[in-house]
Amino acid sequence: MTIERHRRKLRNGEERIYTYQVMPNGQRRSLSIRTGSDSDSIICYRSREKKRIAAALLANSSLLVIGEPGSGKSFLAQLITQEVIEQGFLVSAPSSGTAKQTFMAIADDLGIDTETIEGKAMTSQQLQEAIADWLSNNTAFLILDDAHRFPVSIRCWLEKLHEQGQPMLLLATYPPARDIFIKLPRIELEPLPNHAIREIMEDEAVNLGIELKPGQMAELQQRTGGNPMLARRVVREEYLGLDGHALDHTQWIDGTPFLIAALMCFMIMRFLGLGFNNTSLYLLGGIMTVAVGIIRIMIYSLPRQGGRLGQ
Q1: Residue 224's domain spans which residues?
Q2: Where are the transmembrane segments (predicted)?
């Protein structure tokens, strides 16, 4: 059996995508009917965030969008850039690079001359000043993806622009809680709902020409955690026959059971010291119990992140 997908345009101009399962006898069974705007992207599932972010930028405000890898931040940035440009505004959305490369890209996007009067290329400091002067007299928006990778020089410069009222959108994965990141209002991208993940997986399966049974789909979906990138990846792993059950990466290890076990052992040591009238054992157990309690408090004060992508 094979799976086919056809795009058709209706009389009212709306596009629809029809997905069929072709049986061995040539008959076709409809699997899904979706509008063209829903195809091949996750942006339609972030429409609410897109509207809120675009409205905030057009209201001369700045925002920080946070999301784990693969949650759709870069795609969301592209759509917002398109939205603001369609409103008739200038937008600079440079790609990741060194500080000077970033400043050069912003200057090029805004049409700012990057050469001095003598015809020499401007330094990073000169570019910062030229862009800041231009923005103070003109209206434009900065949309900066992967902002957590920016060096301190760019972050400090963005902080000064923010203080001057420059609207900007930063998108980052687990940004540090300092400088520009702590000053901007933030939106955190939530995991996509189950129906959205299933549609993404169905699209990827159709692109690869494979059929996933409902049981397979449900099993694979449990490994995505609402992450669209993982939704596509697990389907590709299934297509290649790979074992994709390994952890993506560990960002946090829960050591609470070990700490509780150690705490109980030292409490038992205290009782033994009290029962055998052994002052040294009793004091040692008390000191170690307090030490374990302090360690537990310190660990719980650390910032937590999900142990796996999508969780």
Answers
A1: 194-246
A2: 258-276, 282-302
Compute the distance between CA of residue 90 and CA of residue 224 in angstroms, rounded to an integer: 37
Tokens describing residue 16: 């629809």
- Higher pLDDT: 301 or 113? It is 113
Instruction: Report the range of poorest mean pLDDT among 35-44, 170-179, 286-295.
Output: 35-44
Sheet containing strand 2-9, edge to edge, reads: 2-9, 15-22, 28-35
Distance between CA atoms of residues 210 and 236, nearest Å: 10
- Residue 187 has phi, psi (to 5 degrees) of -125, 125
The mean pLDDT of 152-179, rounded to a whole number, is: 92
| Predicted local confidence at residue 142, as pLDDT | 95
Same domain, 171 and 80: yes
Based on the fold, state whether residues 173 and 217 are members of the same structural domain: no
Mean pLDDT taken over the chain: 81
The letter for the amino acid at 258 is F
> In this structure, what CATH number is given to the domain that contains residue 83?
3.40.50.300
Average pLDDT over residues 41-60: 82
Same domain, 81 and 151: yes
For residue 1, the SS3 value is coil
Instruction: Answer with the residue of higher pLDDT: 48 or 255.
Output: 48
Asked whether residue 168 is assigned to any structural domain, the reply reads yes
Six token digits for residue 255:
């050591």
Question: Which phi and psi (to 5°) does residue 141 adopt?
Answer: -120, 140
Cα separation, 281 vs 276, in Å, equals: 9
Q: How far apart are CA 262 and CA 183, in angstroms?
A: 41
Q: Number of folded domains in the chain?
A: 4
Tokens matching residue 114: 């990057």
Query: 123: how many CB neighbours lie within 10 A of its CB?
Result: 12
The residue written with tokens 């059996």 in the block is 1
Please report which confidence band the pLDDT of residue 288 belongs to, taking 50, 70 and 90 as the band edges: confident
Q: Tell me the C-alpha distance between 7 and 35, whole Å.
A: 9
Residue 311 lies in a domain: no
Residue among 196, 237, 247 at smallest CA distance from 216: 237
